[in-house]
Amino acid sequence: MDTEAQPTERDRSSRPSDSGETSPKTPGPEGRSRFALVPRITRWLPGGRITLAALVFLVFLLLLNTFVLRPFQIPSGSMEQGLRIGDRVLVNKLAYRFGADPRRGDIVVFDGTGYFGHADYIKRVVGVGGDHVVCCDKEGRLQVNGRSVDESAFLYPGDRPSAVRFDVVVPDGTLFVLGDHRGDSSDSRDHLGSPGGGMIPVGEVVGRADWIVWPLSHATRLQRPDAYARVPAVGGAHG
Predict the structure, then answer these.
(1) Residues 153-204: tens digit of each pLDDT
(2) Span of 14-18, 125-129, 130-134, 182-186 with lowest mean pLDDT
(3) CA–CA distance, 232 with 213 (Å, rounded to integer)
(4) Which DSSP letter does residue 44 get?
(5) Can you tell me the distance from the alpha carbon of 103 to that of 124, in angstroms, rounded to the nearest whole number?
(6) Which has the least CB within 10 A, 46, 57, 120, 211?
(7) How many CB atoms lie within 10 A of CB 1?
(8) Beta carbons within 8 Å of 83's beta carbon, 6+ residues apart
(9) In the chain, at which residue ranges do the beta strands (DSSP E only) sit?
(10) How do residues 45-74 score in pLDDT, each as one tens digit?
(11) What secondary structure does DSSP assign to 135-166, as a single string?
């Protein structure tokens, strides 16, 4: 008697399909919970999806304002005629965050607490650390590191570069700043005898004003003027 077991044929219905078709995958628990999160939040919030969208937008604006761009309203006429009272500018908060330093001619917003007053100010950088700034040469122009600077392209019409005479060396890590409307600006000249000597630490700079965004009729990009391009650095090279 042949005792070897004989193979038997299985029920064909139990065999895997040879057609290559696969059943559609259903989301796992993780996928279902992820997709269900938004409906849960919108059911909880008054206003549903509209409120959620508004909250996301507000968080985005908060992060943008904290780390990237900050709107600033011009409070006085000290930067006329380029920046008028009520103009809104966008301040680039990343301009000096990755190794770059303020340059002569930049328009900067800074915290003047302890230096100018308990407020934020907007002025133009005239001297950086190590610069020798003098007012004035025989033609009434500012001199920076021995080079006379023609500021006529942005000074308020009829203003002199300064009615106040000064001769200062800007300490390292600080800025000497002036308003473009020299006859209506409280700036480094007015605080030479104050703590800090009228200089603003670079660390107090909020950022560089790069755009006028309002009113739309006055909207423009704020460019660094060429007036300071030929000013030599302290070591003798042009900055």
Answers:
(1) 999 999 999 999 999 999 999 999 999 999 999 999 999 988 889 999 999 9
(2) 14-18
(3) 33
(4) H
(5) 10
(6) 46
(7) 3
(8) 74, 89, 107, 122, 180, 209, 212
(9) 69-73, 88-92, 107-111, 120-127, 132-135, 142-144, 147-149, 166-169, 174-178, 200-201, 205-214, 220-221
(10) 666 666 656 556 455 445 445 546 899 999
(11) E--TTS-EEETTEEE--TTTSPTT--S-SS-E
How confident is residue 37, by pLDDT bands cut at 50, 70 and 90? low
Looking at the domain 71-228, which fold is it? Answer: Umud Fragment, subunit A (2.10.109)
| Amino acid (one-letter) located at 4 | E
Q: pTM (2 decimals)?
A: 0.73
Alpha carbon distance 176, 106 (integer Å): 11
Residue 158 region, left (φ>0) first, then alpha (ψ -120 to 50), else beta?
left
Q: Collapsing DSSP states into helix, strand and coil, what is residue 60?
A: helix
Are 123 and 103 in contact by the 8 Å Cβ rule? The answer is: no
Is the dihedral angle over the CA atoms 105, 110, 113, 119 positive or is it negative?
Answer: positive
Domain limits, the chain: 29-67, 71-228
168-200 as b/e: b if 16+ CB within 10 A: bebeeebbbbbbbbbeebebbbebeeeebbbbb
Give whole-number Cα distances, 121 to 59, 92, 179, in Å: 27, 15, 10
Q: Which residues of 95-115 are buried (b: 16+ CB within 10 A; e: fewer)?
A: bbeeeeebbbbbbbbbbbeeb
Distances (CA, A) of 157 to 3, 80, 151, 152, 154: 117, 9, 11, 8, 8
What tokens does 65 get? 């304002």
